[in-house]
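QUALITY CONTROL LOG
STEP: pairwise intake check
CHECKER ROLE: data steward
CRITERIA: each record must contain a sequence immediately followed by its structure tokens, with no blank fields

ENTRY 1 OF 2
RESULT FIELD BELOW
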Amino acid sequence: MRQFTETAVLSGIVREALGAGADVVGVDRLRGGSKKGVYRVHVRGSRVASVIVYSWAEGENFWPAAAEGVDAVHPFAPASGLVPFLAAQRRLDRIGVRVPGLVLADDSRRRCPADVAVVEDVAGPTLEAFLRTDPARASDALGELAAMLDVMYQQRSRHYGRVDVLERGDKASGDSCEQVVFERALEDLAEAAERDPRIGSAAAPLRDRLQELAARVAPRREYRLIHGELGPDHVLVDAHGHPVLIDIEGLMFFDAEWEHVFLQLRFGERYPALSRPGLDPARLDLFMLAMRLSLVAGPLRILDGDFPHRSLMQGIADHNAKEALALLTR
């Protein structure tokens, strides 16, 4: 049976972060995380009423165990753990992009058999919820998010890859972003074809389409800083209505078009507020089909395990399978 991080362990970590006088009075395991546990810990006797604890314990990761030989420096390798989190937190904080404040980072394994971080509890909803409940104020937050993305895209690098990989002087796999995306898309297509009969029956034309789109992409040698998985559920809105980025472990230098196809999918009719001029149409076309295939293969893969929100993942896979097939006729 899956074991989550125990309350006693969380209490010890929070007291270490906030001081011995902090008394833990409640713990809520928050929904949504698939690679780490996210806990809201309520306290009294402290300067704050609650904090968030991230736990990268093995039992918190719902994804199937990675096969041996996984390339850890691949841009799309699983981005999970304290090291990529801290690298991303430092980079974003340095350039003035709002993320939850760091209270404590601990990789000692003294109190918990996993890496943990204690961060500020941003007292507000996700942008996704805010867009539903208060669309007028949410539009202001959306505008601020667009400004945040502009700040991030002003950060440029001659090398692509996750920020933690580049910080330690390693080189990401592959020769170009478009090659990495194309090769990953072929892998996702093969996996999705085995799991979804609709994709399986169209595997050959989908492969041909990927090759056609990849051939249209011209070389590029400068990359922008992107979140990597920026949906409205990965943006919190604080008490003053300002956006705050979360789930930042995948922060990387890459083609901005990869971010923008995901923004298009997740923000839908709200995407024009985030759109920016100068995006490469050829990259957008290739990346959109690649993203659709990824969002078929990935959700079906996690369903091999005991992920609890099964209908959600199946729905994501079904929707993106239909959209991937629709791209064959556009």
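ENTRY 2 OF 2
RESULT FIELD BELOW
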Amino acid sequence: MSALSRPAAIARPVSHDPGDGADVAAAGRTALVLQALLLECTGADEACRVAVRTLAQQLGFDRVSLALVQHGVLRLVAVSDGSDPRVATPVQAQLLAALGETIDQQASVVWPEPRGQAGAPRITRAHRALLSSRGDAVAGVPLVRHEEVLGALCCERHGGLCVDAQALATLEALACFIAPTLALLRERERPWYQRLRTATAARSVAWQRVSLAVAAAAAVVVLAWPAALQLSGQARLEGAVQRVLSVPADGFVQQVHARPGDSVRAGQVLVELADQDLQLERQRWQSQLAQHQDAWATANARADRAQLVQNQSRADEAQAQLDLVEARLQRGRLVAPFDGLVVQGDLSQQLGAPVRQGDALMTLAPGDRFRVIVEVDERDIARVTVGQTGTVVLTALPWQALALQVTRISPVARAVEGRNVFEVEATLLERPADLRPGLQGHARIDAGRASNGWRWTRRLVESARVAFWAWWG
């Protein structure tokens, strides 16, 4: 097998006068029979086998071989004597060499050359090598369709019979019928994407220019078409109000009645601190209060005004201390100030642990009022104003976009993952029932309208502008 490249120009087979009218009629009948047989075939391989058998029978050749160019390689497809073209043998190698010689010259090759043949001399080395091994005459005819070589025929005769000009002309005429039919069958067997690629490559230059013009016009329209300019950023959901429950005095954690994620009601006890020392102190002050009251009653009975005033002062002091102890005992039971959710503070594993005054124990947030914190990049913060609307999609609710409205813009930036962001506070215009503080997602704020070209390139243009200013000054 030999690799082939498509020739720039291919000469068509030369037509000769077949002689008298009887020969013309016989050639016409043979062509009609051959074409009818080929059109009945369901595939290119079957058509090749039918073609070589018909040519051998109708034109009196002892062996007819047919090879096709497939993906730039010449392959033997069919032989009239029934041998398998897929099995490599020395004879088939010689056949391929002769067929390749015919295709390379893009013209019919006959050996021995018929008398009176016109035209340039042909190279017949491979044909002579085939003739020396078998047969007395050999002819090679290319199969051409639209100046494209599809393959070639190699016809052999034994017994001293030569291939004259009349037989060569008939063979060339029949090759003109075979080539288009084989091309049609091969095209039908190709996958649809290959046929589409061939059809696209065969478009005229004018059609390609029209397509490019239409594509350019469509691109200009798309780039100039205005669309909504949206500023995006990471978002998190927080309670509209958060209350921190801190330790009123030094002590120890005695009982915990709620954990993060629990819903609590207003007045519900959440944490109880140890109160043994306060209980003892309350008993001490109660005892002292009773003593001072008894002393006051005795002084009053004696009409001793000095002792009366003194005992009254001591009783008031004991009552004040007792009230203070009662207040401390009351503050030792931390209760929920409103209906909401516990968002921070898991003390279930810290029972008996010491706590100091002012330490934060739990954080509560209301379950029906929320705010959205959107982290807007510093390059976009100038386009954000109070009152703008947008949407937020939470990770827990990916199929539901919640409407929001900007209510406040933080004036101070903070660093997040190597970039500066401003926190923009927004309120939800709609509140599903399953929202919880702490949910995160992605938010987009509507900042007017702009062309698609500016929306897609504004980052690059702004970065280039800053870089140019920093370099040029």
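INTAKE CHECK: passed for both entries
DESCRIPTIVE NOTE, ENTRY 2: The first strand starts at residue 63 and ends at 70.
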